[in-house]
Amino acid sequence: MRNRYLYITLMVVLGITPEMLSAQEKAQHPPRLVVNITIDQLRTDYVEAFAPLYTDEGFKRLLGQGCIYENAGYPMARIDRASAIATLFTGVTPFYHSIVAEQWLNRETLRPAYCVGSNVENTPQNIITSTLTDELKVATDGKANIYAVAPTRDVAILSAGHAANGAFWIDDQTGLWNTSPYYMSELPAWVLGINEIDAPEKTISRLTWEPVADFSEALNFYHSNAKQKPFKHKFKGDQRIAELKTSGLVNQYVTDMAVRCLSDGGMGMDAVTDMLNVTYYAGTFNHTAMTECQWELQDTYIRLDRELARLINTVQSRVGKDHVLFVITSTGYGDPEIADYAKYRIPTGTFYINRTANLLNMYFGAIWGQGRWVEACFNNQLFLNHKLLESKRVSITDATTRAQEFLSQIAGVHNSYTSLQLISGNNQELIKVRNSFTPERSGDILIEVAPGWKLLNEDTQETELSRASFTQFPIIFFGNGMKAERIPTYVTVERIAPTIAKSIRIRAPNACSADPLF
Question: Residue 212 and residue 230: Cα distance in Å, rounded?
Answer without folding.
Answer: 11
